[in-house]
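Quick one: co-fold with MGD.
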Amino acid sequence: MRAAAPRPPIIEPADFPTNRGGLCAKGWSAPELLDHPDRLTSPLVRLDPADRSSPLRPAGWAEALDRIVTAIRASQAAYGLPSVGCFGGGGLTNEKAYQLGKFARVALRTPHIDYNGRFCMSSAATAGNRAFGIDRGLPFPLSDIAQARAILLVGSNPADTMPPAMQHFDAGRAAGAAHIVVDPRYSATARGSTLHLQPTPGTDLALANGLLHIAIRDGYVDEPYVAGRTTGFEAVRAAVAAWWPARVERVTGVSEAQLRRTVQLLATAPSAMVLTARGAEQHSSGTDTAQAYINLALALGLPGKPHSGYGTITGQGNGQGGREHGQKADQLPGYRRIDDPAARAHVAAVWGIDPAELPGPGVSAVEMLDRLGIPGGVRAMLVFASNIVVSAPDRNRVRERLLALDFLAVSDIFLSETAALADVVLPTAQWAEEEGTMTNLEGRVLRRKRVLPPPPGVLDDLTVLATLADRLGFGKYFSPDPETVFDELRRASAGGIADYAGISYERIEAEDGVFWPCPAAGHPGTPRLFTERFPTPDGRARFLRVDHRDPAEVPDREYPYVLTTGRIMQQYQSGNQTRRAKSLKVTAADPKVELHPDLARRHGIGVADLVELRTRRGRAVFRACLTDTIRPDTVFAPFHWGGLASANALTDPTLDRHSKMPAFKVCAVAVSRAGGPDDVAPATPPPVHAVTPDRKDG
Ligand SMILES: Nc1nc2c(c(=O)[nH]1)N[C@H]1C(S)=C(S)[C@@H](COP(=O)(O)OP(=O)(O)OC[C@H]3O[C@@H](n4cnc5c(=O)[nH]c(N)nc54)[C@H](O)[C@@H]3O)O[C@H]1N2
Ligand SMILES: Nc1nc2c(c(=O)[nH]1)N[C@H]1C(S)=C(S)[C@@H](COP(=O)(O)OP(=O)(O)OC[C@H]3O[C@@H](n4cnc5c(=O)[nH]c(N)nc54)[C@H](O)[C@@H]3O)O[C@H]1N2
Ligand SMILES: [Mo]
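Sure, here it is.
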C-alpha cells in the first residue's frame, strides 16, 4: 500500500563542483513525484489481448512479460528478426542504455534500435565527430565557462533550461566577460548579456559564415593555429567569401554593425568560447550549422586553448552517456561504429557471441517511427524512457504509426501519452530508487545512488531486460546488477572513443566523478581535451565547407509566420513527470504561445486569448502570451503538452541528412484567434490509470 511506502528523501544540495549546490525548479520538485498517486505500481495489460481499444487492467509480472515474449516471437516468426524494434532514451543510466543496446542486438538480434537523443544531441554530435574526431559535449569542465572572457551562445537558453549551470555564466558576466546571445527571442539568458542578436529561426549557418567572413576580412584569423592544428581552411575561406555582411543581414536580419561587434568581442578577448544548443541544432541543416560554428572557433584558434573552445550544451539527464554505449542505430558501446569490423569483433568478444551474429546498422528514430506497422518496418516495439507521442515531430502521424503496430510495450514511471497506447505497460523504478551512473555534458561519469527502494511491485529496467532476455533464451548474457553491467560496459568500451575502462564505481565516488576517456585504472581521466592534438587520424581538427540552405518550409501566404518550439523553465520535456508536480502546476498551468503584440493585433488577438496555430501537418491551441521579446514574424510554442496543446502536432519532420535530426525549430505557421480569456484552456491532463491494485481501497 502506498501509505506504507517510505517517505521521499529530502533533497539536500550537495557541494558539488558542477552545480555548486544549486538545483533547478525541476530538481527541487522531483521528490514530489516519487510517491505521487499516479505512479504505476504494477504492469498493465489490455483486457482483451487482441484489442488495443479494450481497457488496460493491472496484471502480474509473469503475465505481462509472457505477453511481450509471445508478441516478439510471433513477430519474428511472421516477419523476421528485424520486425522487432526498441526505442530508448537519454534519461536512462549508462548501465540501462548499454543493456538496452545489447538486448536489441543479442536477445532480439534486430538492427532496429534508436532513441530520443536523435531529437536532442545528434546534430552537434555528428559535427563534433566530423571536426574533432570525438563527440563530448564540452571538451573542458563546465566551470571553465566562468573563466572565458567572451562567449558566443547560439540557440541556448541555460537561464531557463540549465539553471544550475547558469551560475558559471553569471560568474563570468560579473567578472566582465562579454556574452553574445543568438536567439530569435530576447530570452532570460539574453537579458544581462552584452549583445543580443535576433535572427530569423533557421538562419544560424548564414550568420556563422558571415561572422567568419568578417573575421577573415578584418585580420582576426589565428594563422599559426590554422596552419599547425587544422586542415581544410582554404575551402572554407573560399566559401565564406560569398557571405558578405549585407547578404547576411538580408538572410538573418542581424545588422552589419552587430556582426562586426560580435567578431570583435570574440576575437580580441584573451579567451573565448563558442557554444551551441538546440536552437541552432534542431534543424534540417543542424549538423552543418554546428560545423559552421566550429569553423569559426577554429579560425579564431580557440579549441584546446585555456578557457576557450567550442562546445554543445547537452540536454537530458544522461544526454552524454546515453549516446555513447549502443542505443544508436549505428553504434556499439564506447562510441564504436557498428559497421566497423574491428569494433564488431571487440564487442562480440566481450558479449561472448560470434561477430557474424551481430546485426548491422538500423535506421534513425524518425525513420523507424515513420515505418511502424508498414511492410519492411518494425511491427512490435519496446519503448524505454521516452514519451514519443508528445516529443516526436509530426506527432499525429507518429500516433497513427504507433497504432498500426502489431504490438507496443512501454516502460515508464507514469502512464504517459505513449504508454496509454500500449498493449503492455511496465512500471519502472526512478532515479532515487536504483544504482547507476550518468555522464554529464563535461564527459564526467557520476554515480547515482539508491536512497530508497522502488514501490512494491515495481522492477527496474535492468532487471526487466535481463528477465526478458532469459525468457527469450539468452539469459546467460545478461545481468540485472548495475555494477556488473557497468564492469562489462567498461570492457566493451575499452579502446573505443568513449573509453571507460579505467572508471570504477569506487573511483567515481572517491574522485567526485571521472572524465572519459580513461583507458586504465591508473589513468587520471581527461577533463580537458584537444590541448595537444585532436583525436583524428592526423591529429588535426577539420574545417569543412558548409553552406546555408533555406529551411524546408519558409513562410508563404497561407502560412505566413515562422514557428519555433522549445522549453520553459517550469516544465520538463514531454511533461509526463512535471505536468504531475503540484508545485510546478501552480507556476505554469497553461500552455502559452509567445506572440509579438504587432502580430497579435493583426489577428485581433488580445492578452490571454486562445490562439490556434496551424501548419501543413496539424493544429494546436495555446493561450496567448503577448511579448515584444520575440521577433514579430516568429511565434514560440513550448512542446511540454499532449492533446490539443501539442506543439508537435505542428512541427516538420524533415530530417538533417547527416544526423537525422528533425526540424523542430522551424516551420511555417498560420495564426488565428480561437477564444477569449475566459474560455477554458486546452491543456489536456496527462493520462491516469484509474484502477491499480494497490489503490482500489484508497
Ligand atoms: N526547464 C527545462 N529545462 C530543460 C529541459 C526542459 O524540457 N525543461 N530539457 C532539457 C533538454 S533534453 C535539453 S536538450 C535542453 C535544451 O536546452 P536549450 O537548447 O537551451 O532549450 P530550447 O528551449 O529548446 O532552445 C533554446 C533557445 O533556442 C531558441 N531558438 C529557437 N529557434 C532558434 C533558431 O533557429 N536559432 C537560434 N539561434 N535560436 C533558436 C529558443 O528561442 C530558445 O530560447 O534543456 C534541458 N533542460
Ligand atoms: N517540438 C519540439 N519537440 C522536441 C524538442 C523541442 O525542442 N521541440 N526537443 C526534443 C528533445 S531535445 C528531447 S531530449 C526530447 C525529449 O522527449 P522524450 O523522449 O519524450 O523525453 P521525456 O519527456 O523526458 O520522456 C521520458 C519518459 O521516460 C520516463 N522515464 C524517466 N526515467 C525513466 C527510466 O529510468 N526508465 C523508464 N523506462 N522510463 C523513464 C518519464 O516518465 C517520461 O515519460 O523531445 C524532443 N522533442
Ligand atoms: Mo534534449
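If it helps, Residues 120, 315-316 surround molybdenum atom (ligand 3) (CB under 6 Å).
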